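Need the bound structure for magnesium ion, inputs here:
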Amino acid sequence: MKTYPSSEIRNVTLAGHAQSGKTTLLSAMLHAARMTPKLGRMEDGSAVTAYDEEDVARGTTMHAAVAFAEWNGVKINLIDTPGFHMFAHEARSAMMPAESALIVLHAVNGIEPITERVWKYVEESAMPHSVVMNHMDHARAESTWEETLASLQDRYGRTVVPVQVPWYREGVFAGVVDLVTMQAFEYEPMGSGQGKIVEIPAALAEASRAAHEALVELVAEGKDELMEEFFSVGTLPEQHLITALHEAIREDRIFPVLFTSALTEVATDHLLDFLKLYAPAPLERQAVAARARPVAMHAAANGHAQEMDAVTEAVDGEIVMRAVDDAEPLSIYVFKTMTDPFAGRISFFKVFSGSIKSDVAVTNYSRGVAEKFAHLSIMQGNNAVPVDMLHAGDLGAVAKLKDTATGDTLGDKGHEIFFEPVPLPEPAMTWAIEPKTRSDEDKLAPAVHKLMEEDLLVRFYRDPMTNEFLIAAAGQPHIESLVAKLRKRYHTEVTLKAPKVPYRETIRGRGEAQGRHKKQTGGHGQFGDCKIRIEPLARGEGFQFVNDIFGGAIPRQFIPAVEKGIQESAARGYLAGFPVVDFKVTLFDGSYHDVDSNELSFKMAGRLAFRKCMEQAKPVLLEPVMNVEVETPNEFAGAIMGDLNQRRGRVQGQLQKPGGQNMIVQAHVPMAEMLDYGQSLTALTQGRGSFHMEMDHYDVVPSSVAEKIIATARKPTEDDEAA
Ligand SMILES: Nc1nc2c(ncn2[C@@H]2O[C@H](COP(=O)(O)OP(=O)(O)OP(=O)(O)O)[C@@H](O)[C@H]2O)c(=O)[nH]1
Ligand SMILES: [Mg+2]
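Answer from helper R.:
Posting the output first, comments after.
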């Protein structure tokens, strides 16, 4: 495999709403470049970037994937990303290794929620982007594409400008007119995917000329030299126009619109021509920014290797600039990890600066360890193609690194820098996960950890309050795919349950009682007797024990046993089996027997006294209440607050986000009502809302709700006490 110098590389991320055709479009480009013998399809798993059987089974991309096309002397690296809202954060992370993005949208469906979301991502990272209107073969596309274009210009400005005119031949999408070269490209739908250059059809001649002029004018705008040339000659020479358009795209001044049908392979090879000519090469970036010191993963504000001018505000000395150049020290950023039970760990990386050869030793700056890059390769889906070396700006992969994870920076020893990982959203749903058998129990943790290497959003931990193993992910389909992977890849069977809510119990009143434990079974008997008072403490104060015994009513050595008995009983709960908290016990009297009294007897006495006190002390249930922050487009804020009220939530405040489009709603909501919130929020906001929550405090469960919890819970019995 040939190696490509930095000037002959393009790194392009495809992003857009689910089902707009990104995976198929990428396939069509690979087919046009003859990287595959036929058009790969999502449906049958033949698309190069649809190698994950869970993706194929669900018909949607769940993780970013990488492929490349060699096209007329350049190598175009293409990153496919998910468009389904639950996985759209992967599209954000996949911007970092690229220099430009293609925003793919459906010609008939137009702007959809994830179109807007990825548009925000590219703007955030100042990433040059073009729009591909796909599904142009759709029966209604001929009559809707202009409307879709108008809505794009409405939303994002007139600098969203077509560089092609679509051509319908008797109602069939058959090609495009290139508005720069003023040539028409004609296709046989469902044919070879190779366009033929033909004359502009008469019916399109007038529209094409007008659109050409509009494009030339826009490109020349603000460039005096070009303006003069344009006005004196009436147009711009092709080469000048190409150069000027290329610059305008790179500088985020113009956002070209192109038209394709991925499925019928019309105008998809010409998209490669476009990327070769207009997508910025890595070395067109003046330099990339990194940190001189490591940055905590979640502290990264809008973590991204940014263009030079975007970071001038940063604190002096914190930022290090690296030119995208082979002559600079090596710096590598790992943007994706794949774990395969057979091939092991494969790390996908970008060479931001310097160059790398196979078999060299590299330092992982993030972890301070040495790693060997044996067998350098580039990825065509899940297929590693060996290469000898990679130049600055290229994307590559390497297998079997020991200690390297997604988000790490590596490079030459002594030249430490740190690229900032893109922050991830919080997982939206949590389940309790249980191994089915004993052998599954042993396999579970290592297998889940392998999945977590691939997917940084997944969390796995034991809840200290309920002792359950919990797994947190982005939503129902996400967790289902994880469970399927556990089964298929790691032969580990699990069941999922709603996580237990860690309720507690407490008292609202006082109680006073005697606990008298007496047993006479031949030989030695048992005797313990105590009198206690209990009273409530403030929330969060836990448990207090006061010894108020005078005159040796209970011998000193038995007093800790009374306390222990009370604590053991409190831990088992009184109402519904949840630990009793926030109460004070005063031990004020008792009696003993010279022979029969021992520790066990006083422990039993303590338990009995405690349970009798609880009868009088108005016990209640406590539930965890979460502090919830929901971000939503303004128009849904009312619905969000209504829904939170339904969930017994109390809205604490609302805040307008800068830009005026989005609101933050802040509320306190019981945890029990938030277990399925991710799904509801998606439904309420068409996938445009996001939320995050953390435990805030415990509060008393209203009695109507408490009755149900108590009815279904197993009440501790006297038998438990005797245990
Ligand atoms: N008719 C037609 N169908 C298309 C076109 N592009 C894609 N499709 C079909 O639309 C469906 C979705 O295509 P994908 O390529 O999986 O879409 P995607 O954007 O990758 O979707 P996500 O991975 O869910 O974000 C598939 O059934 C494709 O065969 C097109 O241009 N025309
Ligand atoms: Mg896809």
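Comments: The mean pLDDT is 91. The chain has five domains: 6-282, 292-411, 431-497, 504-617, 622-709.
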